[in-house]
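Researcher: Structure prediction, please.
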Amino acid sequence: MINKTQFAYEPGEHEAESASHSYIMSLIAIIAGVPLPILNLIATLIFYLGNRKSTYFVRWHCTQALLSQLSMLFINSYGFWWTISIIFTDEKITNHYISYMVAIVVFNLIEFITTIYTAIQVGKGKHVSWWFYGTLTNMICKP
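Model: Predicted structure follows.
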């Protein structure tokens, strides 16, 4: 799921710190915005926009963090609105709903742990590429 490789160059301490902050920003947004999934994406997008003219290492990791938050938005929003519909309508809790909510919790937990690990490694100047998101980031973010 995670591929730790050497980047094309050795990033400086400031670059590694800025890249690490992109993941920390998404963690803070997850904690603060749990009930509203859009807050996670907005916080990460603002950090991305503030660093889009930065070095390639920083831009690359800001882009990867943004892409992961974008997919989390869709997954969590569906669960959020499904829960709202159960609360405010006569819809019942079904096995499908419980299964989806369990899957959301597992997916969010994996993403949370992976984000912490990545923030630590990137803060040390090591390049961490996530499965799927890393490949997509390579296609989007050019040196």
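Model: The radius of gyration is 17 Å.
Researcher: Thanks, that helps.
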